[in-house]
Protein: Presequence protease
Amino acid sequence: MAAAVGYRASLVGARNGRKCLRSRNGGRAERVDGMLARTLVRSARGVAGRARQHATRLLAQAGKKNAALSIVASEKIDAEIPASVNPEVAKSKYGFEIVKEEYVKEYGSNCVLYRHTGTGAELMSVHNRDENKTFGAVFRTPVEDSTGVPHILEHSVLCGSRKYPIKEPFVELMKSSLNTFLNAFTYPDRTCYPVASCNTRDFYNLVDVYLDAVFFPRCVEKTDPESGKQVFEQEGWHYELDTPDPSKLQYKGVVFNEMKGVYSSPDSVLGRVCQQALFPDITYGVDSGGDPRNITDLSYEQFCDFHQNFYHPSNTRFWFYGDDDPETRLEILSSYLNDFEANQAGVEKSRVLTQKKFAEPRVVTDYYAVSEEAGQDGQQKAYVNVNWVLEDDVFDLETQLAFGFLDFILLGTSGSPLRKALIDSGLGEAVCGGGLEDELRQPTFSIGLKGVDSSSEENLKKVEDLVLSTLESLADKGFGDSAIEAAMNTIEFSLRENNTGSFPRGLSLMLRSMAAWIYDKDPLEPLKWEDQLAAFKKRLEDETPTKLFGDLIRKYLVDNPHRVTVNLLPNTTLQAELDGEEQGKLDLLRKSMTEEDMEELMRKTRELKTHQETPDPSEALKCIPTLELADIPKESQKIPSSLTEMTSGGEKVEVLSHDMFTNDVVYAEFAFDMSAVPKDLLYLVPLFCRCLTEMGTSKEDFVELTERIGRKTGGLGAYSFTSGVKDEDGVRGYVMFRGKATADKFADYCGIVQDIIQNVELNNKNRFRQMVLETISGMEASLVGRGHSYAMGRLSAMRDAAGGAQEVMGGVEGYLAMKQLKDRIEQDYDSVVADLEALRSSLFHKGSNMLVNLTADDKTLTSIEKEVQGFVDSLPSRGVVGTEQWYEGKDSSLLLPKRNELLIVPTQVSYVGKATNLYKDGQLERSGSSMVVSKLLSTTWLWDRVRVVGGAYGGFGSFDSQTGLFSFASYRDPNLGSTLTAYDGSAQFLKEVKLDKDELTKAIIATVGDVDSYSLPDQRGYTALVRHLLGITDEERQQRRDEILSTTVRDFHEFGEALDQALASNSQVSAVTSKDMAAQASEEMKDLGFISQQIL
Ligand SMILES: [Zn+2]
Structure:
């Protein structure tokens, strides 16, 4: 989580990697955030978080055939410096002059910084061999208030433009392109519009739609102000009244509602309060995303002015990256820029000022909303966060690298001293504050605890004292050699590997470069690290780490007066006050309205709805450029895989390996099946996985073990994986060690796993209690922030054993089990240890229950055979063990009762889920074309009804083609009943849908885009493993692809029939919602017989 400076970016994702519907902004900032190599050093910490995410997501995705630059190998790339455009041509033909040109060896990239002579627009043109091409347009958009104008504008410009005069070109691209990234972000001081694709034609299509959107959007179009205003009202805010009953008057709007969701999350409240307290005098002192209380103050005129001031080429930084022709980039841009003249006034206005440093530290107290029940429950949990502004302006490179390194040693792993001191203190449940943030103009550092008992003020003060005293003592005593070596290896590994997960590398570089460029600094500097790292190593030797880090800690933290301690306290009446304030404003308006005004408002409400519900004419949609089916490869992509068997002590073990270029890194998984895990211990499995790498062994305490992992590997963790299987009732479940190491350290990697399996220390009550408290605290945050994934998990658990297992391992049932476990630790820890030991002995054996998965090039794979054999030999034999009933799907007690339920948490929005099974209850035949139907349903009917008309932040359908489970879900939804009505209308929509050849082709292409999504070698190797475990063959995948490519309108109608039948005969609702909304829904939908349950 980005505490102080979160920016909004999002993929509204589904649980465990079922299909994701992309949607822009807001939402899961942490996801994108985790993907970013924010600074040279911060990237290392990102990787750790990322590894955890991958493992919990079942990604049945293929990679591209030629994964580009799998790892940056300097000597391999240096030989081929890509040519740039002839400067004369750039200038005379396209109006671009070169400011600077440099080859960046770290990324094998030729970088040319251009300036457009007519407008002053800047372009960074990065040319290399990465096929995952990336483009971005970035504007400086500082604000003076919290009306959320840049955020609303960010949504609105993607709703139609000059060349693309349709309702939502963004959605049309989502429906029809092969993009590997399509989104937009609002930061506190800038707005970014990035796209990426591996297909050149597709890429330029995306670029053109985005350029037209930002410079010529319909939302500010003067010739048709009514239409523009309608966009503003839909995306921003408007009054809604759909019955003559004036008490039903309310505010609606996508951003309005999105931000209500954000403001419901205490973690986001904390981040915002901290940022605003640190920067009271400048733009960071207000919320660029919008405070729901202020959003409704924004007028359409202010909105248009903002666009005119800041969305101008003179205030734009363009970014192109990848293997496409650099001259074409200039050609495309100049065709847009030539319409403009320079606007120096806007540039001046957009400058981001700096905050004057405080003379004295401050303390700020603020509040977050909790339910009355939680208040009475004695859960007086406070957040205490200590924050600093570190510098008057952006860090110089040397300090940035050094401080980033310090940040990692202080907080990077659970064994890091500052993190550990906080957790060990027992003052709170989990660490909050993200440490160093250096994406904004002035870097900050934030750290603290959440779940602090707020009943005495003294307690709060203790947290601040602890942070300061720990830092002081570290400044004097320094860090151990082992910790420094581990940090150095982790950071260097991560820089060299440059593994950005599913996030395009070009985008990661762009965001890194932008953090300097946006403040008029050199955009190339942040991309270079090789020489800086060498210099830093030398400094470490010359000055000694104790002196170097001691000086940094004293100067920037301990002796720095620009410090704010934020105490965020729970408040049981806050929500009612906020609601009252909103109602008060509406009451005022109501009182001032005449009969005619009411009618006029109802007319406008109807008009907006009609407009929203009326699809664009097919003819109009043709303006969106798209590929043709002929551009799509007919063959499904294959991941190189070979399966061999290894014999050890009379047992046979499968070894799956994938020959891919990984620049000397070995990616390795050791997977052990869960068939012998007793059902009653399932809930403990995820925690047990954490214990494996975070409790230490009988030979090393957990700090030493963590450091050894850091010194010897590029990361190692243990994760659980569960899934249903095609045509079976049973479950596939595994506990996996997953990690990476260079080939020369692979023996160490195996040694560590072996050590953990044999000697893990499970009897450490304090450490275990800390992990349980952290788990509970994390689940409480995600129940409020990502309620849809819990609702969908519940619905799946009503239907099959895999869903049931996942529910106890990480759903609401799992949460309730964790709360019981917390008590049992105090009462009878011995029995907990016995359970953990039972898990260990049920899992780690060699034989048919285990599998080794390796990804590296052939030569490396051969060179490590001995180590793999040695590892397997070290494992005990399994002997004859039966398979547990739940694993075979024969234990129905794992299933939740089928019912319609409302799960109550403190929130201002709802997450509404509904599910059925299309194979079992609708007799749908398994076919790849179902994926096309499901995708289209999400991007048309559900998008229009749930998001556009309903005002929810997201709404989508998710289809599991393996099991037939179809689920609907909405995200940050102001409604409940009308969302369910929209779901039920899906069947009719599909049964009657008419698609011309063009629309059908687009839907097919977009589905292929999902299937072929881009991934790096480690992810491809893992994907192949998952397919192997689930028995998904290449032949079957080819068949599904053939079915996707030959989808007809008939498939939509058949799917609609099946959905109709299944929804009517066997479907359930599960929603995470507020107490008030639950009461209202129970009253209004008596026929559903809702059962309400208070969770938080
Ligand atoms: Zn948004």
